[in-house]
# Entry
Amino acid sequence: MPKEKEVTIYDIASALNISIATVSRALKNDPVVSKRTKKKIFDLAAKMGYRTNHFARNLRNQTTNTIGIIVHELSSNFITSVLAGVEKVTTEAGYDLIIAHSSESFSKEIANAKNLFDKRVDGLIASLSFDTKNLDHYKPFKEKNVPVIFFDRVEQDGKNTVVVIDNDKCGYQATEHLIQQGCKRIVHITSSLKRNVYAQRFNGYKEALSENGIPYDENLLIVHDLSESAAIESAMQMLKMNPLPDGVFITNDFVAAVVMRTLKENNIKIPEDMAIVGFNNDAICTLVEPALSTINYPGIDVGEVAARNLVNHLKGIGNIQNTNTIIIRSNLIIRNSSLKSEIIEKGKKKLN
Amino acid sequence: MPKEKEVTIYDIASALNISIATVSRALKNDPVVSKRTKKKIFDLAAKMGYRTNHFARNLRNQTTNTIGIIVHELSSNFITSVLAGVEKVTTEAGYDLIIAHSSESFSKEIANAKNLFDKRVDGLIASLSFDTKNLDHYKPFKEKNVPVIFFDRVEQDGKNTVVVIDNDKCGYQATEHLIQQGCKRIVHITSSLKRNVYAQRFNGYKEALSENGIPYDENLLIVHDLSESAAIESAMQMLKMNPLPDGVFITNDFVAAVVMRTLKENNIKIPEDMAIVGFNNDAICTLVEPALSTINYPGIDVGEVAARNLVNHLKGIGNIQNTNTIIIRSNLIIRNSSLKSEIIEKGKKKLN
DNA sequence: CTGAAAGCGCTAACAT
DNA sequence: ATGTTAGCGCTTTCAG
# Structure
């Protein structure tokens, strides 16, 4: 691979018989350089195929102009919309973005953090992996004054700036809705209760039950990972319950879709026999049948808000130290998978 | 933002009263440095919180150790699996990855290419956007001997190294399968025929028709983008056909799922009235009802193969100039959305 | 085994 | 409006 020699500002300067300082200034569009020289420089630079050496520039400037983001998975609808939101803001603000993902592994998350730290990102955005035990790997960032913003799966100890939704309320709303549809035995399928998001949704679930005079039954709580096989297992577990449940609130749309499929395969009618509410509002919701009721969790807003706050902090416009928790709007979307009472009404009408 | 002073090899050297050269060598684990000094250096480096300055290193070494990838969209199942495959290989080989996406826009793809070129990626992996008109923006890479590998949506003019599947064959198989199921009026819903993948699948479709004595009817060809609204429109277009079609081969699973939903909403029975075959084998296939027959297009393999070839080329192990076209295995997966004949058989049995 | 020194390409303070 | 020059932190020859 014969590496072509790169054109530098020295080449341009000597070709034009001017100093490198002038070339450097012209290339930065410094108004102090005369229009004529500027034009000459720009033309020659284009002709010679000059490109900025970012390493030299960054070395000199002691800045990387890069923001890192650590996510737990790339293959989720929610995460890709967060990324889209982050990317929009960072690109506009002229930052590069390095994406790292932990595959839900604590050790990989640590490795990612170390890597991004060594790459000297100017700021970091992160969501915790499934089995992250502590936040020690983010300490080096704090020590070097590199701002970190967490989103979605976070540690809400008041020490970190976090962008979240009101998971408590969402869990409450989802469950309350099921109760209003006449459900009495409501299963909750969720993931590790060590993660704030799942713990809070579970709390909301329990609160809604209690406020509606339904005793919490721990046998109706199913905790699993978010894989397809786990979802099938959860559904089978529901089917073995006696008496059968009549509603289920599931913490993830994909899992909800798989559960629904499995239940239907076992001759359960949705929503008549069991009403279902998922979480996230993925595209999948309106493609399954019946369409899935869910909590709308706008990833793009989460990404934009997290990135905007980080960028503003970096530019000195704001300061994330002053903001501990940013709550993004979310809401219940009611579709056919949970409209039990209506369907039953319709059924009655047909009978008439 | 008070920037902490960074620790450099100078700090380590002077603290230990040795030369920076020795520190540099030790940090690279050069065997020429004595174990004792090495240990001292490593320990102090860790204690002082030293981190390599990649800019200084890359500036000195004239290498970026970075591979760029341009994709048309992040929010597609196929693309995220390609990314996963690429990431696996590049990470193992010690390369950084910069992901850029064009949002299906030609001008953004050009901007991305320019950006990655200016960042001096060591190699590039790319899939063309929806409306990319030419490959001029990749010329600078060739001129500087920066290897480029295209995948999926490519220009097969023999001038580029491409990683693809046999789209022709896939289109043929999908259509042939529908014919075997007894379909006579088979619609093909696809996207811009300027893109190789869609053109080739369309070719396969026509070949299968012709070889089975079914004349090609241009009224049965629907060309749209891959959005939900376009999918709904396509389905409505099908419903207006007279006589109605009895099968449809759709170039994308998401579109296929939306079309299926729309058809069902209009009282079309799948597969009895219309059999459906999609493309890609996204997770969605087994969540819709009936499960979607499709062409399995393993993105992870595509990504791994593309990245492996690029990395080998960069390391001098292989040379992509010698390899023009790499074809990844793909295959038809038959599910219920297309099993028309069987269902009709069953129906007959039930009548007996 | 270790050290001295040059230089990668760029920016910015200072000088003209 | 332009030029001179000193580094940014690292690697690597060459010389001990």
Residues 18-22, 25, 32-34, 37, 56, 58-62 of chain A lie near DNA strand D (CB under 10 Å from a C1'). Chain A touches chain B through 50 residues (CB under 8 Å).
